[in-house]
Specification:
about 325 residues, five-stranded mixed β-sheet, two-stranded antiparallel ribbon, disordered N terminus
Length: about 325
């Protein structure tokens, strides 16, 4: 019934009837008052009428207008409420949907990366088990292969644990912090990475200034290691990696530039995604990895409310720029 859909309509029409009845009763009482009518009217109508006839057509027309107005207003409210509910529901559910999609993609990628070393290890064991004349050298080769695959799995599991740690640790405000000299930590990383660079005929050029942030020593060390190791890994032989650290205004900047294979415009959009490796990176001889390093670097930077960007041209080289909130030297 219409009263079930729009109960306010019946209430308002009842109010109209009540108002009409009250006005009729009021006028009838006032007509009984001898002082109410003017003298001329009293002379003309010695006995005043005490009953009034209400024009029901006018009352019904008023009710119809009220009903139409309510119908329009209620319809507009329903339409606006529906649109707002749809918009707010979509906005509320989008982060959940994105998280579920990211989780599915992460599980799929992780399963794929775990399957590769496990398959290689299983195949090597099965082949050697079929060999009834397996020698000691063959056994040593099998154990060496098994160790290599276990090392890969260990590296993968450690990287996944590190990503999880940064997912759960929150922002830098929730973590134990101390004033860290970024320049000193980066110099330590450069010193440790120099031997790896020498093996690939890649030198490291530095321009490092004292710069301080509130952080943990491990996070800055890990961040610098990832960026410099990646730069060396994808550099061309007989080139150099440029490492720069300086502070400007309220931020500390870390820049690592290489002259290597570079990153295409399409790949730059996903270079910080977990397990993502560009085709050019996959084809570089001697490069191993799971595409987790830059994802970890971004997590570290994000946890300190910083920013990490990449500038690159395919075939020319890449430059990663990290920006972190600075701490003044005299701040305790």
């Amino acid at each position: 019934r219409s009263s079930d859909l729009f109960p306010s309509h019946d209430r308002l029409t009842l109010e109209v009837d009540r108002f009409v009845a009250m006005q009729k009763s009021k006028m009838e009482r006032r007509m009984l008052d001898p002082d109410f009518l003017p003298y001329e009217m009293r002379q003309r109508f010695p006995t005043p009428p005490i009953a009034f006839v209400i024009e029901r057509e006018l009352v019904n027309e008023t009710k119809a207008r009220i009903a139409l107005s309510l119908l329009v207003v209620d319809g507009a409210i329903l339409a606006i409420s529906g649109m707002l509910a749809y918009f707010l529901a979509g906005k509320t559910l989008k982060p959940i949907s994105d998280m579920v999609e990211e989780q599915k993609r992460f599980i799929g990628d992780a399963s794929h990366e775990l399957r590769t070393p496990l398959t290689a290890l299983k195949s090597a064991i099965e082949v050697n088990l079929r060999d009834k004349n397996m020698s000691l050298d063959d056994a040593k080769d099998l154990l060496t292969c098994a160790k290599d695959q276990v090392d890969r799995l260990t590296h993968l599991s450690n990287s996944l644990l590190e990503l999880t740690k940064h997912d759960l640790s929150g922002t830098y405000e929730d973590r134990i912090r101390e004033k860290i000299n970024v320049g000193s930590v980066v110099e330590q990383v450069v010193s440790e990475m120099s031997n790896i660079g020498i093996q690939k005929s890649v030198s490291i050029k530095t321009n490092i200034k004292e710069s301080f942030v509130f952080s943990t020593n491990h996070d800055i060390y890990r961040l610098a290691t990832i960026l410099i190791e990646n730069a060396i890994k994808y550099s061309k032989p007989d080139t150099e990696v440029e490492v720069t650290v300086y502070s400007h205004k309220k931020h500390v900047h870390i820049k690592v530039k290489d002259h290597g294979i570079g990153i295409s415009e399409e790949d730059k959009k996903r270079v910080f995604d977990r397990f993502y490796r560009a085709d050019a990176a996959r084809n570089v001889h001697g490069t191993n990895g799971y595409g987790l390093g830059l994802a970890i670097a971004k997590k570290i930077v994000d946890s300190y409310k910083g920013k990490i960007d990449v500038k690159s041209k395919s075939g020319i080289g890449s430059e990663f720029i990290v920006t972190l909130p600075m701490v003044k030297v005299d701040q305790s």
